[in-house]
What we know:
Blueprint: E1 3-8, H1 12-24, H2 26-30, E2 34-40, E3 44-46, H3 50-55, E4 65-67, H4 68-71, E5 77-80, E6 83-87, E7 92-95, E8 100-102, E9 105-108, E10 112-114, H5 122-125, H6 132-144, E11 148-154, H7 163-178, E12 184-189, H8 199-212, E13 215-217, E14 222-226, E15 229-232, E16 237-239, E17 242-246, E18 249-251, H9 253-257, E19 280-282, H10 295-315, E20 326-331, E21 337-342, H11 355-372
Helix pairs in contact: 1-10
Amino acid sequence: MATHVVIAGGGTAGSIIANLLARGLHEEISRGEVVIKVIDKEEKHMYQPALLYVVFDRFRENEMFKDMRDLLNPSVIFIHDEIEEFDFNANAVRTKSGKKVEYDYLVIATGSKPRPDLIEGLEENGDIFYTLERAKKLREKLRKFDGGKVLVSVAAPHKCPVAPLEIIFMLDEYFRQKGIRDKVELGYTYPIGRVHALEPVANWAVPEFEKRGINYETLFNMEKVEPGVIHSMEGFEKEFDLLIAIPPHKGSESLINSGIQDGWVPTDRHLLKAEGHENVYVCGDTTNLPISKAGSTAHFEADVVAENLIAEIKEGHPARDYDGKVMCFIETGFSSATYVWFNYTTPPNPVPPSKMIHWLKLGYNRVYWLTARGIL
């Protein structure tokens, strides 16, 4: 009997794992001893970090997508379907079309989704950039914007934790290039007692805010948005002409349907296995681990998951632990950037922004597809 590996989700984590498994288990797949399947409701894979650049007209839509079947190794079976729920007792994934896909090993890489609907009035009175449609809509508003109060307001949890800092710095430079920065009041709110969840990043960001004339307020949790005004749970309110919100995120509906609270799977921080399930790995945004929900997190976790699956199938045991590694670029405008690197034991330490780091980030934007193919 063949060993069936089912990967739920074809995003960054799912694609990397599928392609690494296809190469690492090539002989077993050729002999019919291993079958790898990827299930995703989308036929095209989107490079999500590009959405931030779409807002400022610095990334073309046609460069953001690859066909899933072209991105995955030819030996991987791609199932274009939406997952309804996970039946962990039966070792099966059930889809909305009625399929029951059984597995010996399961990888859950279903990601996270922005949920602006969880904040009253945000859908109607605010903008987000976490979908292509909404990023393009915001781009058009910025093109026509000629002055006023612009507010970036952050909720938690959310993916790409440095994105709020990136967009506020890019907005600052965008308005300077348009020659209207003196007509724009830039503001930023964050839900805890500092401007970023990671204290070293917050300590680095505050002087940057002050140098650029960006107002900031902490302990501001979005509760309700009305035309021109946002209210916090703490009883404060702020006026705006343009609100750019970082909405709260939740895990996939398929996991919530399966009894997983908020869609965050309880996960062993080192082995990346779902708690209570020896044959289920979890990767990327889907975990409940207290680390950044970021593309690099998914990348580094995916390497560990793939190596462990290969070792389990070939030798009967996992091969290595995940050490919490994360590395994120932080754009500080259109011509400079910094980065943070950290893991479970080493805190982040942002380096001074430079043009070189910015160009490294732009370069990675172009070679991302090598990452998704498990090459880089």
